[in-house]
Structures are given as structure tokens and as C-alpha cells.
From TrEMBL:
Family: Belongs to the class-I pyridoxal-phosphate-dependent aminotransferase family.
Gene Ontology cellular component terms for the protein in this record: cytosol
Provenance organism: Canariomyces notabilis
The EC number(s) this enzyme carries: 2.6.1.1
PROSITE patterns attached to this UniProt entry: AA_TRANSFER_CLASS_1
SUPFAM superfamilies on file: PLP-dependent transferases (SSF53383)
Cofactors: pyridoxal 5'-phosphate
GO biological process, one term: aspartate biosynthetic process
Protein name: Aspartate aminotransferase
One example GO MF annotation: L-aspartate:2-oxoglutarate aminotransferase activity
Additional detail: In eukaryotes there are cytoplasmic, mitochondrial and chloroplastic isozymes.
Length: 408
């Protein structure tokens, strides 16, 4: 029937991108993009990715066969090590089940699907608690698999930092065994992360309440430039000996956005039957994967695998990560100091306090729209800016424009 499918709204982020592309102004600035740009405002192919690509193209053995259902084993094993540390007991005790997915989105989806099928307490689904705000797609992914969702306080509008008390209260009030979605580092959209001490408190509180941690990690190494440091939150939980899952994306840290490389990991709590539980989980993940995508895409997985399995390339990757995270940190400092020089009303310390690709500026929707109409500067309506869209040539223009709209 013609009237049963209503028109859905356009994805706001992709709509923003379209509006930016259509704008003929030479001054336009795209602060909506969720992808890294170099100082010339151009996409950056990591030098290490170019090298891996070269190796792959010259490999006479390479072909276009299917991968196994769980993906490229030389990638998934190293991917788990990257998150948990190469000598993690969880790995040696065979308590980790890893499946290659369609980037981070596919990993979140596979995890959601798995929990919808198997995570019930007394026959009832537990609610998934998402930070307020969170990456908008989380809402749709969990809702689409039929899991109930709720939010926990996260961003404090006053301090533009973490509402830690609000978050803890919500975790304490949530029914035991609730699924709690956590951004491992570089929270999207706020750029606000708990401190290591706060993570410890969160982990202890969640363990006490028997909540189920669902980590989403899309920015490992991209946030601080240090892969181990950016995995600190996850390692802390794993060391607590709790069962958890992790959705891992290689889009940002390898610059492999369109290649859709990522992994989903299940980590069992230590016990005498942990390895057996893990093997059962892996068997079920394989069935879900088979019915959804059969097997994951091969090209990006091979690139990431070549880098992760070669010491020299791995070192070069770390250098590339420092280049990207370093430029972003420099842009945070530049924007903050320009706003402070201009004496723009308000405090701007949050720009350098927040980390990762995004910053929640605190600009109102009206100010955001004015920046778009009067200055051709594009950002999401919630005032989130992508630091990657700033460069040495446009940061002053952006600061002056923000200064003007804030004073109005
Ligand atoms: N989770 C978060 C929090 C993200 O910001 C992103 C990327 N925007 C993803 C997951 C997944 O991205 P992708 O599917 O491109 O790996």
C-alpha cells in the first residue's frame, strides 16, 4: 500500500555535508565532518597505509576470495591485543571471541543483535543506557534490534565537562544488570572523557551493580596519540574481571573510512569454564554474522593486518597517529587562544580540556545557524565542531565569526 511507508528525515550529518558542498562561498568551513583533514583541509592517506597498500598490490598471492565468517584472523587477533595489551591474561586464557565487522557501526550492531538474542535476565531484556548525548546512531542501532534504551547524564552544560555525579547516580539507580554503553575515549560528540580516577569509580560501581559494559572505541590512538593510553578505560574494566563487549573501528585511526574495517570482541570473566563460554559465544556470533553479511570485506582488513603484524610499519603507524592527534591538539590551542585574545564573552578552557576529534563548544542553535548563514561555517545544531575541519588558514576566521555571533 502506498501510505504505509512514511518519508524518513534525512540523516542530519549527511544533510549538513550536502549543504556545505552546495555553498559556493570561497570562505566556507566544514566543521561538521567526522573525518580527519590535513592542514590544507584535504583527506589524508596515512603514509603507513600507502605502504601497506603497495605491499598488498604487489603480493602475487593476493586474490579476491571470501574471508571466513569471522573475518581475517591475522587482523582480529592483533585487534584484540591492541585493545587489551599483547600480554593480557584474557587473551592467553582464551577468554576473547573476536569477529571482524563492517567497521565500528557493524560492530555495535553485531553486539546489539547478540545482546538482543541472548542477554535476558529472568526472560526479560535489560535496558541499554546511552550517555546524554551520544553518537546519534547508537539510538537507532539498539532500537532497531528491539532493545529498550534510556540515557544517563553525561555532559554538564555549565562546566562543559563531565556531569560525574549525575552519571554515577544514574548508574546506581539503573536496575542491576543493565547494559551501559561507554565510549572508551574521545567521547563523540562532547570530547569529554572521565579521568582515570573517575573511570576507576565507574568500573567499581558497575561491577557492584552487575551492569554489563558495552564499549565503543572509534578513536584509539587518535585521541592522545598513544594507543595504550586510549585503551586504558577498557583495560581497567577487563582487569576487574567482568564480562564485557567491545565495538572497535579502524576508520579514524587508520584513515580507512570507506574500507569499513572493524572488529567486535566478547571478553568473558575469568572462571574455570570461561574458554568454553567464549567458544559458545563465538559460535553464535558466527551464525548472526552469516545471516547478516556472510563474511566481512577483505581489503581494509588486509591493510590494517599488514600494519599490525609488522614492527616497522606499526612504529610508523604510531608516528602517523601522533601527526593526526598532534595537529588536532594544536588546533584546539589555536582556537582557544584566538577566542581569548579577542576577549570573546564566556570561558573557552573546555576547547583544550576536551579531547579527540570533536568539541562541544556550548554555542546555541541560533548561533550555529547564524554562523552558517552569515559566515558559511557549518557545524551540527548542537554546537559540536570537528577539530579536523580547522587549519592554520581558517582558524582565525572561525574564531572571529564565533566572537561576532556570541556578542550579538
Ligand atoms: N562509534 C562512535 C562513537 C563513532 O563516533 C563512530 C564514527 N563516527 C563509530 C562508532 C563508527 O564509525 P564507523 O562505522 O565508520 O567505524
Amino acid at each position: 500500500p502506498p501510505d504505509v511507508v512514511p518519508q524518513a528525515p534525512e540523516d542530519p550529518l549527511f544533510g549538513l555535508m550536502r549543504a556545505y558542498k552546495a555553498d559556493p562561498s570561497p570562505n566556507k568551513v566544514d566543521l561538521g565532518i567526522g573525518a580527519y583533514r590535513d592542514d590544507n583541509g584535504k583527506p589524508w592517506v596515512l603514509s603507513v597505509v600507502r605502504k601497506a597498500d603497495e605491499i598488498l598490490r604487489n603480493d602475487p598471492e593476493a586474490n579476491h576470495e571470501y574471508l571466513p565468517i569471522a573475518g581475517l584472523a591475522s587482523l582480529t587477533g592483533k585487534a584484540a591485543e591492541l585493545l587489551l595489551g599483547p600480554s593480557a591474561p584474557a587473551i592467553s586464557e582464551k577468554r576473547v571471541a573476536s569477529v571482524q565487522t563492517i567497521s565500528g557501526t557493524g560492530a555495535v550492531h553485531l553486539g546489539a543483535l547478540f545482546l538482543a538474542k541472548f542477554y535476558k535476565i529472568d526472560g526479560v531484556h535489560r535496558t541499554v543506557y546511552l550517555s546524554n548525548p551520544t553518537w546519534a546512531n547508537h539510538h537507532q542501532i539498539f532500537t532497531n534490534v528491539g532493545l529498550p534504551i534510556a540515557t544517563y547524564p553525561y555532559f554538564d552544560k555549565e562546566t562543559k565537562g563531565l556531569d560525574f555525579e549525575g552519571m554515577k547516580r544514574a548508574l546506581a539507580d539503573a536496575p542491576a544488570g543493565s547494559i551501559i554503553l561507554l565510549h572508551a575515549c574521545a567521547h563523540n560528540p562532547t570530547g569529554v572523557d572521565p579521568s582515570p580516577e573517575q573511570w576507576r569509580e565507574i568500573a567499581a560501581l558497575m561491577k557492584e551493580k552487575k551492569h554489563f559494559p558495552f564499549f565503543d572505541t572509534a578513536y584509539q590512538g587518535f585521541a592522545s596519540g598513544d594507543l595504550d593510553r586510549d585503551a586504558g578505560s577498557i583495560r581497567l574494566f577487563v582487569e576487574q574481571g567482568v564480562e564485557l563487549v567491545i565495538a572497535q573501528s579502524f576508520a579514524k585511526n587508520f584513515g580507512l573510512y570507506g574500507e569499513r574495517a572493524g572488529c567486535f570482541h566478547f571478553v568473558a570473566a575469568p572462571s574455570s569454564d570461561a574458554a568454553e563460554i567464549t567458544s559458545r559465544v563465538a559460535s553464535q556470533l558466527a551464525i548472526l554474522q552469516r545471516s547478516e553479511i556472510s563474511n566481512p570485506p577483505i581489503y581494509g582488513a588486509r591493510i590494517a593486518s599488514i600494519v599490525l603484524n609488522d614492527q616497522a610499519l606499526f612504529a610508523e603507524w604510531q608516528e602517523n597517529l601522533r601527526t593526526m592527534s598532534g595537529r588536532i591538539i594544536a588546533m584546539r590551542q589555536a582556537l582557544r587562544s584566538k577566542l581569548e585574545e579577542l576577549g570573546t564573552p564566556g570561558k573557552w578552557n573546555h576547547i583544550t580540556d576536551q579531547i579527540g576529534m570533536f568539541s562541544f563548544t556550548g554555542l546555541t542553535e541560533a548561533q550555529v545557524l547564524k554562523l552558517r548563514s552569515d559566515f558559511h561555517i557549518y557545524m551540527t545544531k548542537n554546537g559540536r565542531i570537528s577539530m579536523a575541519g580547522l587549519n592554520t588558514r581558517n582558524v582565525e576566521y572561525v574564531a572571529k565569526a564565533i566572537d561576532k555571533v556570541v556578542r550579538e
